[in-house]
Amino acid sequence: xxxxxxxxxxxxxxxxxxxxxxxxxxxxxxxxxxxxxxxxxxxxxxxxxxxxxxxxxxxxxxxxxxxxxxxxxxxxxxxxxxxxxxxxxxxxxxxxxxxxxxxxxxxxxxxxxxxxxxxxxxxxxxxxxxxxxxxxxxxxxxxxxxxxxxxxxxxxxxxxxxxxxxxxxxxxxxxxxxxxxxxxxxxxxxxxxxxxxxxxxxxxxxxxxxxxxxxxxxxxxxxxxxxxxxxxxx
Length: 234
Fold this sequence. Notes:
This protein has helices at residues 2-17, 40-57, 71-81, 106-116, 139-148, 168-177, 194-197, 222-233; strands at 23-26, 62-65, 85-88, 94-97, 100-103, 121-125, 131-132, 154-157, 183-185, 203-204. The protein is of the alpha/beta class.
């Protein structure tokens, strides 16, 4: 665990020194992912990593994503660590994934937040990547349900899989159904497509682009972080 926590701390340092506004901590290395609640040791390990990242962040936002879809575990982590936001892959509705059928538990997550971490922001994916929606579901309706019935604070629109750019048309559809909720790009943002994707989005979660050769998990490079930040801010 010391090696894992040190790696999280170093990644956070590079990201924040490069100009990122905040950091999202997730158990990306835990493939194959559990479809439901993760084991207790995963929650305990993530708590250590979140705490280490918060020390580096010095008050800047730190969030959590417990893969593949343990939102309740994420709320518990936020209650213990004070993390500011929680990404939930399937917050409402149903998605067919490589872990099987995942069903949203917004009713449980929102009530747990009220009891344990009332200031926690819920970032919910609209038809999440690495998954297929049931027939008849469209991004606009899914976004509306997430916001108005699932009470998500921020909506996330990703591409088909890790590192694949979000579809601008899907971002627009989510925007139209989101009410007043911010809509973020969830994958595939690069210096070359940032202008096009961020025309309709309020922010972005970025991973692959910042890693060596653009491959998630290969190691974050400061030069890539700075290039993206400078492009977006420009």
